[in-house]
Amino acid sequence: MSVHIGGKPGDIAERVLLPGDPMRAKWIAETFLEDAVCYTQVRGMLGFTGTYQGVQVSVQGSGMGMPSASIYTHELINEYGVKSLIRIGSCGALAMDLNLGDVIAAIGSATDSNMNRTRFDGLVDYAPVADFSLLRKAVEVAEAQGTPIRVGPILAADAFYTDRPDLYDSLADYGVLAVEMESAAIYTIAARYGAKALTILTVSDHIKRGEAMDSAQREKGFSNMVRIGLETAIAQA
Ligand SMILES: O=P(O)(O)O[C@H]1O[C@H](CO)[C@@H](O)[C@H]1O
Ligand SMILES: O=c1cc[nH]c(=O)[nH]1
Q1: Is the C-beta atom of 205 inside 6 A of ligand 2?
Q2: pTM recorded for the entire structure
């Protein structure tokens, strides 16, 4: 086992879906995977491996925020040999033409986190971006499934409750579609260690309009996102 994941080497597939919520990992394993086995419960951050259309896939909770997601991303790649990581999460929309339940693929991730400023001594504003092959495949899969998918930049924020909503307005002016809390760290660490990463999100609330999905809308919307994530994952060499 690694410091934060209880599985043995070989327990985790090379393709991993990363929801923030460990209970979403359990729901995905029970709903979409065959023969799913729970390989870790350390800190309640559940992880499962099973098969999807005959291909081995794991789904690992990564927690909320970049410090937590960084730990799981780092250990999955460096301790378990994971090659592809697809985050599947919820987000708050900023773009006025997005609606609850819409699916987004994050081509790049702006961030207010200091983690990359520390990495580069504050001398470079590193641009965390999605792996192009994963992004292209996700768009193809979504189109084949008939699920509209919006590709664009997002914000990975340190704080869920912001004191600076004015910054969200500015980011929206620059085309930033939505806010979540992990993608920049996942993209950066995957790039650093030679893995592929993509973030796919479902709009669970609209920050500017003050709307939020109910639980029925969530399940339907999240199912579309999960199917895109799984199909994209198994298409990887
Ligand atoms: O739905 P998940 O994957 O947890 O993602 C979003 O939801 C959490 C905040 O409620 C943050 O982790 C944010 O990134
Ligand atoms: O990080 C998140 C996730 C969902 N909704 C938000 O407003 N922020």
Answers
A1: yes
A2: 0.97
